[in-house]
Specification:
Structural class: alpha/beta
Largest sheet: 6 strands, mixed
Number of helices: 11
Distance between the termini: 31 Å
CATH architecture of the largest domain: 3-Layer(aba) Sandwich
Number of domains: 2
CATH class of the largest domain: Alpha Beta
Number of strands: 9
Radius of gyration: 19 Å
Strand order of the largest sheet: 3-2-1-4-5-6
Order of helices and strands: HHEHEEHEHEHEHHEEEHHH
CATH superfamily of the largest domain: Ribokinase
Helix content: 25-40%
Shape: globular
């Protein structure tokens, strides 16, 4: 497998972002592609989610996160969202039969080692996705129950929440609600880590194999809490002082899916994904006039261009 396009690209200081994707002979900057043999045994992941035209969230973020972990990404678009870092203008749902056909197209040809589910705005989309997952029976299903955009715009119909709970949640190997989503699912008011634990138990009882309640909406240290039905795991991280957090939930859940595809346990996958998203937030490129995207490829760029490079930052 020859991935080398051109090795004569000059010194690191003169390399462009494009060169980083052309010069892959050693693939040394991909943490999961350490030897050429591993490149020939690529793991795959499917994102079933909405499209974000601004590139920071949704399927666009998922595919970037998969790629950053050395996982080949495929997709099934559920909604086309016209949004940017400032606002959601409008979205158009994809017909349920087209969602089903996209899923069939992926599974019959490039069956995924993990599946990440994001925006399902309506009951019809949920039923279409749940039906196909029952048909194809994939492993490592990560469900991010997307209910609101970063600016608070609803992305799930109120009437569809019950369908999410009854049809989609029981299929999840791991569910990743943030605090507002966990509150919506459970009816609880969540203000403490004890509340997060209580919510995690209630959500787990809805049928998912494990749940991580994300603490990013709390003040102070950002602690995520994973419950696998028997144990709690805590993932603390210092809060980054930034407004650039567009697509963090999408990116975290797809990073978890990528790590599950690579064979890590749920607790390991969450820990690795947490470190990845923290670095991506801390080194956000500062794009957009509002809540901008994270840097999905920071670690890759840092390894390739070197610490302190403008491309890495």
């Amino acid at each position: 497998m020859n991935l080398l396009v051109n090795t004569s690209v000059g010194s690191k200081s003169k390399r462009s972002s494009a060169d980083a994707f052309l010069v892959l002979e050693s693939v040394r900057f991909l943490p999961n592609f350490k030897r050429r043999k591993e490149v020939e045994n690529v793991k795959t992941a499917l994102s079933i989610a909405g499209s974000d035209c601004s590139g920071g969230a949704g399927i666009q973020a998922d595919l970037k996160a998969f790629a950053a972990h050395g996982v080949f990404g495929t997709s099934a678009v559920t909604s086309v969202v016209a949004e940017n870092t400032l606002r959601v203008i409008e979205y158009q749902d994809v017909r349920p039969d087209i969602i089903e056909k996209q899923i069939d197209a992926v599974f019959e040809d490039i069956p995924p080692d993990a599946v990440k589910i994001g925006m399902l705005s309506c009951r019809e989309a949920m039923l279409a996705v749940a039906g196909k997952l029952r048909e194809w029976k994939p492993q490592n299903i990560v469900v991010d129950p997307v209910m609101y955009a970063k600016n608070g715009t609803p992305l799930m119909e109120e009437s569809a929440v019950d369908t999410l709970i009854s049809e989609v949640v029981p299929l999840a190997d791991l569910l990743t609600p943030n605090i507002p989503e966990a509150e919506k699912l459970t009816g609880l008011e969540i203000t403490t880590q004890k509340d997060m634990e209580h919510a995690a138990k209630l959500i787990h009882a809805m049928g998912c194999r494990a749940v991580v309640v994300k603490g990013g909406h709390h003040m102070g240290e950002a602690v995520d809490i994973l419950f696998d039905g028997s144990e709690f795991y805590r993932y603390p991280a210092a809060r980054v002082d930034t407004k650039h957090t567009h697509g963090t939930g999408c990116t975290l859940s797809s990073a978890i899916a990528a790590n599950l595809a690579l064979g890590y346990s749920p607790s390991q996958a969450v820990g690795k994904a947490k470190k990845y998203i923290n670095a991506a937030i801390a080194h956000a490129p500062g794009l957009g006039k509002g809540s901008g995207p994270t840097h999905h490829f920071y670690e890759m760029y840092k390894a390739y261009f070197g610490e302190g490079s403008k491309n890495a930052e």
